[in-house]
Amino acid sequence: MFGFKIAVIGIGGFELLFFILVPFVMGLLGVYLITVGLWELRVGVDRKKYATYMFTGLALIVFLAMG
Q1: Taking the alpha carbons of 47, 48, 49, 51 in that order, is the dihedral positive or negative?
Q2: What is the DSSP letter of 53?
Q3: Contact at 8 Å (CB) between 17 and 26?
Q4: How far apart are CA 56 and CA 37, in angstroms?
Q5: Can you tell me where the transmembrane regions are (predicted)?
Q6: Using one digit for the tens of pLDDT, what is the confidence trace for 3-39?
C-alpha cells in the first residue's frame, strides 16, 4: 500500500534509500561523533581521539550539507 504511493509521487525504493535515508543516517553519525569528541575532550585523556572524532563528525556534516 505505501510502496505504491511512494512510486506514484516519483520516489522509488532506490531513490528513497540514497537520497533520504543515507544522508539522514550520516548526519546522525556526524552528530554522534562530535558528541563523542567533546566527551573525549572533557575527559582529557587522549587529544588525538578528540581531533579524529571532531574532524570526522564535522566532515560528515559539512559534506552532507554541501551535497
Answers
A1: positive
A2: H
A3: no
A4: 10
A5: 6-38, 50-66
A6: 555 545 555 667 777 777 888 888 999 999 999 999 9
